[in-house]
Task: inverse folding
């Protein structure tokens, strides 16, 4: 008797899970269709006005982006603060570090 009640509860839970998954999939599909309708309407309006759309323009306009310099490129190798030892942790003697860490690192 207890096993039948347990199986009924499990079956109901499985059905609720499947139902919620189906609702999520349906909602996603409908949202996608709505977005596509909006995009199609915008494209049609632009076409009526005589404007180029992004699809029609294609790759006719190349895009240029400025590349930022990396932090390491601001210093030469000799000037870099890490090379000068400025980034060592304060208060930890190097003799202690050499005892703890292997020397081949």
Result:
């Amino acid at each position: 008797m207890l096993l039948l009640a347990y199986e009924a509860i499990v079956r109901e839970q499985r059905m609720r899970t499947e139902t919620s998954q189906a609702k999520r999939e349906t909602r996603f599909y409908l949202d996608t269709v709505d977005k596509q309708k909006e995009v199609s309407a915008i494209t049609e309006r632009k076409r009526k006005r005589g404007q180029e759309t992004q699809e029609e323009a294609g790759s006719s306009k190349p895009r240029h982006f400025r590349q930022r310099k990396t932090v390491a490129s601001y210093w030469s190798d000799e000037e870099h603060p890490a090379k000068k030892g400025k980034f060592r942790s304060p208060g930890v003697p190097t003799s202690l570090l050499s005892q703890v860490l292997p020397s081949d690192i």
